[in-house]
Amino acid sequence: MIPDFFIGIVMIVGTIIVYILSKKLYIKFPSPFLLPITVSLIVIIVVLSFLHIPYDTYMTGGSWLNHLLGPGVVALAYPLYEHRKILKKLAVPILVGTITGALIGILTGVGLASLADFNADILYSISPKSVTTPVAVSIIESIGGIQSLGAVFVMIAGVGGTMMSAFIFNASSITSPTSKSIGLGCASHVIGVTKAMESSQQQGAISTVTMILSAVFVSMTLPFILLLFI
Amino acid sequence: MLKGLKIITQILFLYVFYLIGSWIQSTFTLPIPGSIIGMILLFIFLLINVIHEKWVKEGANWMVSHLVLFIIPATVGIMNFFSFFKGKGLLLILIVLVSTAMVLISTSFSTQWIIRRKKDHI
Questions:
Q1: For residue B9, which of B42, B43, B55 has the smallest C-alpha distance?
Q2: Helix or strand run (H / E) with residue A208
Q3: Hey, which bits of chain A come out as E strands?
């Protein structure tokens, strides 16, 4: 038998290579369909299925990378600090937007899933879908639920929300660029931020600050809101 | 080389905050993830200048720009749920999209209303 340690190393190196290549691909062809996370995911799952490697075996190495999620979330304090002037200047709209978005997102997501009669595991997994994946995965880790399912819901919210945003903004009377950036940061996390960044660096920063605050707010209120449903 | 060493040291520093956050979470049995508690602490320490920006800047920027790498392993687990999305699970995709559209609309409208109201007062 090949020792676990060796398998672990192969899985980590493989994941890193796929990640680097998918990032290069996205720099060449920046489309919401070619996001590094989506491409990496498809490539890794196809390779694992093709070689009949179960997920648990992959995780002998994968879990090492997973350990870096914690410090990764801590690192988000820096961009928040870096943009503290924007946070101060737009405190009221950003806070109101964050609270509105977080509450509507949790209530409609969990509410609709609960109406459709899904079990508690699914409700837990869908609840943090508006926040950035590392935080969503950590939230599910502490409240319960299925992390990978949660990560997929986050991805759908990101790609779907960003693609719907152009249509929604055109069809409604939402014209303020700041409001658009706050909406994108609240609903579609990093992918929404990338979209906001297209209009200007400043709008990208507004969206980033919103995304981080929304992650903090959702992780603090979610455990209590879920008590209404479960 | 020196830059790589600096980044690694700073990531270890961030890891300490994660450990402190996790310790607070388990000691007080809080439902909030330890990483978020660590993040809030670091933000506060940066604001009150207990921790200097220079001590974390490179490491934090590196971590943030490679966050995708660290979420891949957890996400790959979806391979065990494909059959789920063939059935009723498909409905969840629709639910996520509807809920996301509602977040986008409610957030953008509420902030636009506040921004405009503020301007009228000036």
A1: B55
A2: helix A201-225
A3: none
Cβ(A92)–Cβ(B114) under 8 Å? yes
CA-closest candidate to residue A140, choices A130, A152, A126 = A126
Q: What is the pLDDT of residue B83?
A: 86
Tokens 């009723």 correspond to B88
Give the integer Cα–Cα distance in Å for A106 and A9.
38
> If pLDDT is split at 50, 70 and 90, which confidence band does A56 have?
very high
The answer to whether B108 contacts A169, with C-beta atoms less than 8 Å apart, is: yes
**In this structure, how many other beta carbons lie within 10 angstroms of the beta carbon of residue B27?**
8
List of long-range contacts for B4-8, beta carbons under 8 Å, 24+ apart: B6/B58, B6/B59, B7/B58, B7/B59, B7/B62, B8/B59
Contacting residues of B for A178, CB less than 8 Å apart: 111, 115
Here the ipTM equals 0.92
Buried-exposed string A19-49: b where 16+ CB fall within 10 A, e elsewhere: beebbebbeeeeeeeebbbbbbbebbbeebe
> Residue A84 carries which side chain, given as an amino acid letter?
R
Judged by CB atoms closer than 8 Å, whether chains meet at A41 and B78 is answered as yes
Closest C-alpha to B54, from B46, B44, B64: B46
Tell which residue, A77, A73, A75, A222, has the closest CA to residue A138. A73
Q: Return d(Cα A38, Cα A91) in angstroms, integer.
A: 33
Cα(B35)–Cα(B18) distance, integer angstroms: 5
Residues on chain A touching B109 (C-beta within 8 angstroms)? 172, 174, 179
